[in-house]
Amino acid sequence: MKTPRWMTALLVGVALALAACTGEMSAGYAPDEADADGGPDGRVGEPEPGEPEPAPGEPEPGEPEPGEPEPDPGEPEPDPDDPLAGLPPFAPAAPTLHRLTEAQYHNAIAALFGPGIEIPPLEPDTPLHGFASVGAAELTVSALAAEQYEAAAQAVIDQVFGDRERRMALVGCEPADPGCRAGFVADFGRRVWRRPLTAGEVMAIDGVAADLGVRLNDVWRGLGFAVSALLQSPDFLFRVERGEDAPGGRRYTDFEMASRLSFLIWNSIPDDALLDAAAEGRLTDDAGLAVEVDRLLADPRAWDGIGGFFAEYLGLPALDRLDKDPEAFPQMSATLGPAMRAEIEAAIRRLVFEEDADLRRLLTTRTTEIDGELAALYQLAPVEGPTRVELPPESPRGGLFGMAGVLALNAHRTVSSPTHRGKYVQNKVMCFDIPPPPPGVATSLDGVGEDQGPLTTRQKLEQHRADPTCAACHRHMDPIGLGLEHFDAIGAYRTTEDGLPIDARSALDGDAFEGPRQLGVLLAERPEFAACVARQIFRHGTGHLEARAEERAVRLLGDRFAREGHRVQALVRALALDDAFRRAGPPDDTLPDGMGDGMGDDMGEMPGEGG
Question: What is this structure's pTM?
Answer without folding.
Answer: 0.84
